[in-house]
Design brief:
Blueprint: E1 4-7, E2 10-13, E3 18-24, E4 32-38, E5 45-50, E6 56-58, E7 66-71, E8 76-81, E9 90-98, E10 101-104, E11 108-113
Parallel strand pairs: 2-11
Antiparallel strand pairs: 1-3, 3-8, 4-5, 4-9, 5-6, 7-8, 9-10, 9-11
Length: 114
């Protein structure tokens, strides 16, 4: 089991940057961590994976603009978001997959103004 707490969301103009943080209540060095987002009226969608083995995956819509990273010493995963667009407006959720069970944070709102 793990508790996840996201932070770092806010209101930014198009073209701006934000860094989201996800602090976990236990060590994550063996855990695959991810960021998802959910825009109003839409389903939750994957944004990025950070695999415990060291590789990352980002969906096409954010590749080249977003990066995912982790600091295992701080039990924290980050989502670095650059060149933000209004379409990136959503609640961003941190996810941990442990023994085939999904754990979610409460989410952090990101709003990008045009």
């Amino acid at each position: 089991q793990v508790l996840l707490v996201e932070s770092g969301g806010g209101l930014v103009p198009a073209g701006g940057s934000l860094r989201l943080s996800c602090a976990a209540s236990r060590p994550i060095y063996r855990i695959n961590m991810s960021w998802y987002r959910q825009a109003p009226g839409k389903q939750r969608e994957l944004v990025a994976h950070d695999f415990s083995g060291g590789s990352q995956y980002l969906v096409d819509s954010v590749r080249g603009r977003f990066t995912i990273s982790r600091d295992d010493a701080k039990n924290t995963v980050y989502l670095h978001m650059n060149s933000l667009k209004p379409d990136d407006t959503a609640v961003y959720y941190c996810n941990a997959l442990i023994n085939l069970q999904d754990y979610w944070g409460q989410g952090t709102q990101v709003t990008v103004s045009s």
